[in-house]
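Q: What would this chain look like folded?
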Amino acid sequence: MNSHQNKMAAPYRPRRAALNRIDYLIIAITALVFVGVLAVNTSYAARPADQSRVIPASDLPSQDAHIDNRAGMIRARIGLALAGR
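A: My prediction, written as C-alpha cells:
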C-alpha cells in the first residue's frame, strides 16, 4: 500500500478570525447607507404628485409660431457657420 492512502485530510482551521472589526464596521456602514437611500427614495415615491406643477399641453406656447419670421436668420446663421469652416 501507498503511504499517501493511509493519511486522512485534516480540516482547514484558520489561526485568526476571518473578519475583523474593520470588516464589521464596513458592513455596518454599507447597511446603514443602503437603508438611508431606501428610506429617502421610498418617502419621495410615496408623495402624491403636486398638481400645481403639471402644465397641461393646451397651456404651453406654440413652438412653431415664430419659425416663419426667423427663417432668414436661420439661413444666415447656417451660411456663416459654413463659411467659417
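The mean pLDDT is 78.
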